[in-house]
Amino acid sequence: METINIRRRIRLLIIFFMVSLIISGITAFPIAPEMDIVNYLISKSFINGTMKDWLLIVTEGVKSTYLKYPFMAYGTDWLAFAHIVIAISFIGPLKDPVKNIWVIQSGMIACVLIIPFALIAGEIRSIPFFWRLIDCSFGIFGIIPLYICYGYIKQIENEKAIF
Fold first, then answer.
1. Angle between helices 129-162 and 101-124 (to 10 degrees)
2. How is the chain split into domains, by residue range?
3. Which residue has the higher pLDDT, 51 or 104?
4. What are the tens digits of pLDDT across the range 81-93?
């Protein structure tokens, strides 16, 4: 494959990953209104049982906490900020993927670490198992574009080594 096409694919995958990180981060800002929307949609759907019960408990917890202790939302604001900062760190590989392959590697390590973190911390915090699996999916889906980028970057490195 031509190096220019490989670089274009790398850029597209990194941009996709960055946008995904930013969007998932920004959704941490309006948690209370989002929970209202989710509960409305669930009330109109066929979803029943544990998931519906869990989402109702989360909504009540968020609303009660924000009503009495609105400063607690500051924690999720920092979560959103962290997602944005992490996304910005991928500008380096956009400019020079070979030189900044370590950012891709770091992102892949973070994606892998999401799984034990979600499973362990989720257990400690009494998060239902099905929800921990949803959290784990962020690592699974996140590593896919990064792993593909990593392979493309290695191709570029190998082509440079030949010349």
1. 170
2. 3-158
3. 104
4. 999 999 999 999 9
